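fold-stage: in
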Amino acid sequence: MSNRVEQLAKEDAKRIHGLARDAISSRAYQYPIKGILYFISHRSLWSPLRANITPTFTLGLGITTFMFLVTYVPQMAVMALVEGPVAAISAAGLVLSESSTLINIGARAWWVEGALVDTFDGTLVSRSQTALVLRGREVKPGHDPMQRLGKMLTRPFAKFTPTSIIRYFMYLPLNFIPIVGTILFIMLQGKRTGPSLHSRYFELKGMSRRQQEQFIEERRGAYTAFGVVATLLEMVPIVGVFFAFTNTVGAALWASDMEGPTTTAPGLREQAKMAQERTEAPSSL
């Protein structure tokens, strides 16, 4: 029995070591930071965020205030049994994390999700990946990547599902375990968040569920590293939604790099064909 346990422990350690090695070598953890820098330096990508900033800020302020008034003291009392005097600080961090998650869930469910799709597609267009975006929506001629986005041809990427919400609150008690529990919580969230930020990319590529799972599994370390950094950013209260946009930009930059160097020629040919069809349409009447 002891030999079996030792063998399983070695296998788990080997698998974790492999994931860590893949995560580091992929450098996918850099993309959330690249997303921030790219978003800040490309003003044309700001329009979806500007359109949603006021209701998101109001929602964030309301949820954060409510959470501190209602849940801070009970959670601090529970954490004090384990952490002692530092429970006040730990409980504040936990409430902020919970508030940020609720803000993201509410904002995405009510008004932000479509804006994130536009941000993802607009980033791809700005990186000359027009041919890829054309698989999921119309793209108009022009210079501003956001104004070029036309009618959606495929469904946008999935909103928060009940399963993901249940899992979040199921893993939440891990935060009551000092240090190690919080690290495990962030790792588990990151493992889920990484692939979810590429769900629009999978749709544009026309991947089936099985193909998506295989694609993700082959890059599990990279997606986990990307997701952990993205999760940490989105845990920041109120401004976490801002990082949801920059994470989306980072995901699009990663997708663009996966596609490799390209020219706008395929997109231009497609646009020329669409323009010709529109020109010929009246003459056929």
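fold-stage: in (second)
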Amino acid sequence: MHLSASLFLFVLPSLIVAQAQKPLGEKIGDNLQEWFNKAKSYIPASATSPVDATSSKVASVHVTSLTKDNWKTELSSSSSSVSNEGPVTWMVLFSGGNKTCYGQCAGIEQAWNASAVALAADPTAPKLGYVNCDTNAILCSIWAAGPPSIWHVQVPVPAADQSPSPTTIHIMRLNTTTTTAQDIIEIHYAKTYENTPVYESILHPFDGSLAKFGLNVPLGYVLFGFAMVPSWAFMIVISFVSRTIMNRRVGNPDVTRQQQTRRNIPQGGAPGANE
């Protein structure tokens, strides 16, 4: 009995150490898994996600790319309408790259492509449009739109008496980190666009005052031109104008002194000796 107790006390530390340590096979497996995860992080997302590549191809077929030259034609009721039952609905995504979206729209575009696949199978789904504000900056200026956002546009069908009807627009700003394909799909099925107010502005691309007088396109070019001017150039102009204004208000010190001297001399020359 004494020998068994001594043997147990001798073996006990070894058992505790063995229990605390993982088997060699598990260690190797953990090391391989850690190496695999590290290697996977260096692989581009497009290479590890064939579903995204497929969604992008499907979206390119079912999504209309809008430009400054074709947006009026594509969104007109005459070319978009398939029936006279009601307005033609469009969902237009305004996205961008490093210039206008600061490189944060990649997740939005993946969600958009996935939602386009789901909506393509539904004949009641709205038409889909896409605008990249990096490559179509003038169109984004004409619409006064910025990425990332989705514009839900209902283009009215012309009435029998050809009386104009308003084009209803709802604008939904998108979160670059939390927006999913389900959120985009619910804009149509759950009508979440109704949670945002109807867009009413002089910059409305269809019914605004500028659009009615044909001034929205020239204004778009002007805004695009201002956007191309670097910010430091505006600071130089503002500094120059402010200095000019201040100099005019203060005036030239020498000229001011001469004017004051002339005011102090009485008219008719110097006073006589007896005066």
